[in-house]
Design goal:
This protein is mainly alpha-helical. It has two domains: 105 residues, Helix Hairpins (Orthogonal Bundle); 126 residues, Helix Hairpins. It has seven helices and three strands. A three-stranded mixed sheet has the order 2-1-3. A hairpin with a 2-residue loop joins β1 and β2. α2 packs across α7 and α3 packs antiparallel against α4. The protein binds zinc ion. The site of zinc ion has 8 residues, from loops.
Length: 276
């Protein structure tokens, strides 16, 4: 009891000083809510312009990403194919060297045959020559097989290379298209983002998070909408006359009973459009 006794005179004094500043406490509250609505709609107005820029870019960023992934995949595949091809070609030249060596051996044995002293030595050299000839035949067979495989592999490499080059060209075109759009809108977007940040600072935390929540749930990104011809500017459902009057009186923040968007009247819209 003693506490409230002390407090009571303070309250009275405060109320008296409020009366001194503003016409009535109610009038002060009106201005506050109206200002809140103006700030909210200003933020919405800016964010909607950022949305429009993003719509303009559309699917391009995603398409570029997909193409980049595809080109990278094709590059890996092409590299693997070329490695395999290189390995096969290495095997061919290995066999070709083997043939060269065998031919040199034969030449050497034939030279030795001219100088032999008996038949046994001569026959032994003949056997060596036959063996080298068989080696040559086998190597030639392997080379023929490998060359057929190489031709097949080369066709696959060419096909992959063509596909890779085509996709890479597509990627460059799309990338340029996206870069052009970004360059065209970058400054505008940055300026708008700055405006959005500034507008956000004027809005209390609780309202701002409500705004972002409604906006993220709305397909068109609209969280604050004007009343248009008696209907909600977000979902176009009719707003009862009494509710329209409440919106116009700016006594509290009113949301659409159908879509949950925050509703503003002409006054708020005009304030934002003027202040642009
Ligand atoms: Zn609505």
């Amino acid at each position: 009891m003693a506490k409230s006794d002390v407090k009571a005179p303070v309250k009275v004094a405060k109320a008296a000083s409020d009366n001194g500043k503003a016409a009535t406490p109610a009038a002060k509250a009106e201005i506050t809510i109206a200002e809140k609505l103006v700030e909210l709609f200003r933020l919405q107005h800016v964010d909607s312009q950022v949305d429009r820029i993003k719509v303009q870019r559309g699917e391009l960023p995603l398409e570029v990403q997909d193409l980049e992934d595809e080109v990278a995949g094709l590059e890996t595949r092409l590299k693997k194919l070329q490695d395999e091809l290189g390995e096969m070609e290495g095997q061919v030249s290995e066999k070709q060297n083997l043939i060269k060596d065998a031919k040199a051996q034969i030449k050497k044995y034939e030279g030795q045959q001219a100088k032999v002293r008996n038949n046994r030595e001569y026959d032994s050299l003949t056997k060596e020559i036959e063996f080298q000839n068989l080696e040559i035949q086998l190597a030639e067979k392997r080379i023929k097989e490998a060359k057929a495989q190489i031709d097949g592999k080369k066709a696959v490499v060419d096909e992959s290379k063509t596909r890779h080059d085509e996709r890479k060209k597509d990627l460059e075109l799309k990338k340029k298209e996206l870069d052009d759009i970004i360059a065209e809108t970058e400054k505008e977007e940055k300026d708008l983002q700055k405006k959005s940040d500034t507008a956000s600072k004027h809005i209390e935390e609780r309202l701002l998070s409500a705004y972002h929540r409604i906006r993220s749930n709305a397909r068109n990104g609209l969280a604050v909408v004007p009343v248009e011809r008696g209907s909600c500017g977000g979902c176009f459902n009719a707003i009862p006359p009494q509710r329209q009057l409440d919106i116009g009186s700016h006594k509290k923040i009113i949301v659409c009973e159908h879509c949950g968007r925050i509703l503003v009247d002409e006054y708020v819209v005009a304030r934002v459009k003027e202040g642009k």
